[in-house]
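Following up on my earlier thread - several people asked me to post the actual chain instead of describing it. Fair enough. Here it is, all 308 residues.
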Amino acid sequence: MVNLQRTVEWPDPLPNGRMLWARFIFAILNGINRKINIPIFTTMKISVIIAFYKNLPFLDLVFAGLQRQVYDDFEVIIAEDDDAPATKEYIKKRSGELPFLIKHVCQEDKGFRKNRILNAAVRAADGELLVFFDGDCIPHRRCLQEYALMAGEESVLMGRRVMMSEALTQKLLATGDRTLLSFYSHLKYGSQRKEDGIYIPFFRKKVKKGGIMGCNWGVLKKHIIAINGYDEDYVSAGVGEDVDIEWRLLANGLRLQSMKHRAIVYHLYHKAHYSLEEAEVNYKLLRDKQAAGHVYCINGLDNHVNFR
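Reply from S.P.:
Thanks for posting it. Predicted structure:
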């Protein structure tokens, strides 16, 4: 059983002597939080599924973020849309160094088949709650705690991300210095959506726009099974790994729950992996599937029934 006590904090420690006004403001917020906070106990196991493709330095930073989680009842499943020997060697080495179980599912590289390998990872998952990250997203140290606290029978949990600048990403890769994830660093190096990196656990936001981001979201495993997982008809990036699965979960009776300022990840900079043309093809496919009412997708999780 884990006692999860919430406090308000910056994304990571601020550099010494910087932005002292922030400490004053956050002291006030924590004082308010203590008056309304009730410790919550949970025994929910989480399976963290990380979509990965050919970037081990990024994955190393993601693992560093997972190693610092205050919530420790989780396993990690690397869903590799490739079958690279270097990845297998890396996971074998890190498995003996890290405090959490690492599983690895992979497939031959035959173009974009992210949804297919995500389904294989779902089949391999032993957790009651599934949390999905991309291999370029470093979780805030309280990210999994917030997912465990907010998981519900009718909820689809939507985390948010800070878009790190290219300069900050390169500096973090070169140094591994976790203090570079501070709010001050995001200001200094010009990251985008840096305000989404402030951890305010009692913050509640009604869902007015936006939805699931495939790089940071969570749902109970049984709800993924109920819609036959990810639709493997999507064979290019965008839509299939977030917009499509969102509409099917909602059509099955679930509701979106914002995790803004609670479930935070830091997205490492890289060039876009898909084009607007590819996205439009996927949106056309989505509209066809919605018109046909395929909430339980035809080409999905059932394909992996014998995976284990």
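The longest strand covers residues 46-52. That should answer part of your original question.
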